[in-house]
Amino acid sequence: MTNPFSRTTLAIIIGVAAVSLGVAVALTVIGDDLSGGQPSAGADSYSVSAIGHRGLVEMLGRLDVPVVKSRSESGGKATRGVLIIAEPTVSDDASKERLRALVKSAPRVLVVLPKWYGSAGVGETWIDEANRLPTSEVDDVLETIGAGARIDGTAGSGGPAVWSAPELDMERFRLVIPSRQRVTTGETEDAIAGDGLGEVVIKLASVDGDEREVWVLTDPDVLNNHGLRHPDNALFAINLIDHVRDGGPVVLDEVIHGYAQQPSLLRTLFQFPLVLATLQVLICALLAVWAAMVRFGPRRAAPPPLAPGKDFLIQNTAALLHYGGHHADALRRYLAHSIAAVRHALHAPTLAPGAMTAWLESVRKNRGGTIPLPDLERDTLTADTPQRTVEIADRVYRWRMEMINGSQHRT
């Protein structure tokens, strides 16, 4: 077969392909986060919403503090610095075990307790509203990491001269934390920063000579995007992180928020010692291409890498959600979104959460609905298996349809 390209054209094509392959391999091996950011409105370092932590990342970066948003092996990256686990949630035994393993994976860990969850539209980066997590969910996180402290109600923001943190070399400073989570310490932790009404930073005591340091920031409003608007909060967050990291990098784990990056075979092949075998294969491949350059022809069409249709996408998404163990969290968010949709459809007035539930219940009774909202709210907190989660989600959907379209059982 006659070669359709001249030698110069063919050399240019091969050169461009080789450079592209080299750049792709380099980014895969060296890079940790190729996306540069993820659209999010949650309590993670990609989020620009009020409850997110992207502001903390940008603030530390402008202060020349090394910051890594980690999507795999976070503990190994924080061996010389601090691992920040921001607002984790635990809903079952699997998620609790993952959090325990993550805390044990680094010598210095800062756990930021959860407080809020927000409602946002699909693809939106701003939340419509923020709701407090149940106290029991925050206590579950404390219990999982081995702390004896527990949430003991709420307290107002600290005054300008009552906060004290001797270990952080800070005396009589100010924090702005409206309706903060008040924590009562136990025997397994030391108070680091407080105002007499509770502690905002505690440190778990070492056990059996273990030199691992586990610090706990009891209220995320100190360093989330909304809290960092206040200079006093920003100063305290910088001092705390700078003290804990001890001159090393700051690693924010995003695996706990569902941004895990799966292990890469390509990355492994280009790491020592497998890189030696990989280079031999590449040299052989280049020799084979060189020998076959005079026999150029059209390539046989390859089969599609993914099966056509929606079934594969649905099955793959369901498998990922099941593997992540976040079905209970997804159910609570689904209920919150459904309530928001019903409120919008019914033009509901602005009420407190309890009053809103009572208002929706009165509407349900007038419309002849068969599914009480308080039962759904209670059941979402007790969903412990995927099958149970699907059953409750189906009831939430039927409640939403009854509230918007009316009940078929209405007489």
Q: Helicity, in percent?
A: 40-55%
Look at the structure and give the mean pLDDT. 81
CATH class of the largest domain equals Alpha Beta
What is the chains' assembly state? single chain
- Broad shape: globular
Summarize the main sheet. 7 strands, mixed
Strand order of the largest sheet: 1-13-2-3-12-11-10
Low-confidence stretches: 32-36
SS content category: alpha/beta
Cα-based radius of gyration, to the nearest Å = 27 Å
CATH architecture of the largest domain: 3-Layer(aba) Sandwich
Number of domains: 3
Tag the structure with descriptive keywords.
single chain; 411 residues; alpha/beta; Rossmann fold; 3 domains; seven-stranded mixed beta sheet; two-stranded antiparallel sheet; 43% helix; globular
Record the SSE blueprint.
Layout (H helix, E strand, L loop, with lengths): L6 H24 L23 H9 L4 E4 L3 H4 L4 E5 L6 H11 L4 E5 L3 E4 L9 E4 L2 H10 L5 E6 L7 E3 L4 E4 L6 E5 L4 E6 L4 E6 L8 E5 L13 H15 L4 E4 L11 H5 L4 H18 L18 H15 L2 H20 L6 H15 L5 H10 L3 H20 L6
Parallel strand pairs: 1-13, 2-3, 2-13, 3-12
Antiparallel strand pairs: 4-5, 6-9, 7-8, 10-11, 11-12
Helix pairs in contact: 10-12, 10-13, 12-13
